[in-house]
Amino acid sequence: MFLQALIREVEAARIAKFGKTLFGSLYPSTAPDECVLIRSSGGPAPSKYLPVQEHAIQFLSRAVDYPTAEANVWKIFRLFHGRVDAGAWTSKHNYTVGSIETGTFYILKSEALQLPTDISPDEAGRAEVSLNILFRVRLSA
Predict the structure, then answer these.
(1) Segments in 21-133 forming alpha helices (H)
(2) Contact 59, 131 (CB under 8 A)
(3) CATH number of 49's domain
(4) CA-closest candidate to residue 111, choices 97, 130, 132, 139
(5) Which residue has the higher pLDDT, 107 or 46?
(6) Please, what sign has the CA dihedral across residues 130, 64, 66, 18?
(7) Mean pLDDT, the chain, integer
(8) Residue 23 in contact with residue 6, Cβ under 8 Å?
């Protein structure tokens, strides 16, 4: 459900359209050359003491050319990573994602684990750029 909530956020930001240029978990064989994939990539061990879960989510952007693939993943970086305010970086924090259909998730903090990174061309020669973001999610009581 969390992955579906993030897909909706990316779609609401008009970065890509689910089922057309945005996919979850794996690229379908009919996916276009330019598209975005969102998939779970694990995360740290669950806390025994805090009511939180941490989800590491990988965002992959592919396109025929590298600049396009990189530009799409930078949009996702800006959507979830945070910003600089008055000279100090602040992670994006205390916001919700989701809906009645996907469930609503309260994000305590989200931040990129690295800058968008080239992961080499795929088997068809298309550029691919990866971004991993860690989401700290408050568990409901």
Answers:
(1) 66-80
(2) yes
(3) 3.30.2000.10
(4) 132
(5) 107
(6) negative
(7) 90
(8) no
User: What's phi and psi for 11, nearest 5 deg?
Assistant: -65, -40
C-alpha 80, offset from chain centre: 7
pLDDT at 90: 74
Contacts of 30 (CB under 8 A, 6+ apart): none
Q: Average pLDDT for residues 25-46, to the nearest whole number? A: 91
Number of domains in the chain: 1
Contact indicator for 102, 121 with CB cutoff of 8 Å: no
What CA–CA distance (Å, rounded) separates 110 from 134? 6
Please state whether beta strands 88-99 and 103-112 pair in parallel, antiparallel, or not at all (unpaired).
Answer: antiparallel
Residue 107 has pLDDT above 70, yes or no: yes
- Its domain, for residue 46, covers 2-138
What is the distance between the alpha carbons of residues 80 and 109, in angstroms, rounded to a whole number?
A: 9
pLDDT at 60 over 90: yes
Flag whether pLDDT at 141 surpasses 70: no
Q: Measuring CA to CA, how many Å separate 43 from each of 26, 47, 133?
A: 19, 11, 10
> Terminal CA-to-CA distance of the chain, rounded, Å?
18
